[in-house]
Amino acid sequence: MIVYRFCRYRRRREPSCFLPDLATFERRRPYPLPSPVEDAQVAQLLRFVEASTFRGDRPLRRPALRLAILLMYTAGLRRGEVVRLRLEDVDAEAGVLRIRASKFHKSRWVPLSASTTQELRCYLQARRAAGAQCGAAAPLFCSRITRPYHLSGLSNSVRKLMHRSGIWRAAPRVARVHDFRHGFAVGALRRWYEAGADVQSELPKLAMYMGHVSIASSAHYLRYMPAVVALASERFARYCAGLVDGGAP
Questions:
Q1: Is 78 a catalytic residue?
Q2: What digits encode the pLDDT tens for the residues 100-114?
Q3: How far apart are CA 231 and CA 197, in angstroms?
Q4: Which of 8, 49, 68, 237 is most buried by its number of CB atoms within 10 A?
Q5: pTM of the entire predicted model
Q6: How far apart are CA 37 and CA 27, in angstroms?
């Protein structure tokens, strides 16, 4: 696929450039469908984080993991966006984060909810009390006082907590870390359907908030979650049942 994309890029300027036939490629393995992540499950996971014990040389681990989970679920941040946050990207008074040149090289401002803003302030207070670096370019999330979190470290830490918590024991599989972002998108769509809003006109807002390159990237969340699909079907039935039934009452 890397070679194919490079050839396709070259062909824009050189029409005679060789382009492999996609039909000859091996079938790509489909991505696993996301597991539903609900408010009650996230609240239960946060309680598990609070009750967990961590090494004494990592005083920020508990508040850092708690805030990271909240940012992914309540603000739809990607894991990479979380670990790349710097203190200069945080406005704790206004409750706004600046996400710099993330996927698709898009930067954006992300306003937080009132409760998540309060969690952010509590974390910053704990961070100062622990003696972590306070320069503008210092990383927001630290696994130790002088060591920032990396993508693999944060993902593995959250994943271990999710497995140990037993919250998804009855589910076909434990939710992935990225499923928090899916949960945020699905929650927004579900609230719009329940409020009777025009979801199609709201999708550009969701795409901008989540840093998607287009609304198509946001719309694909409609396909995966039964709750959203059911609400969309109910709305379709209310407005179009007469057309489908041939005008029958």
A1: yes
A2: 877 767 789 999 999
A3: 12
A4: 68
A5: 0.78
A6: 29
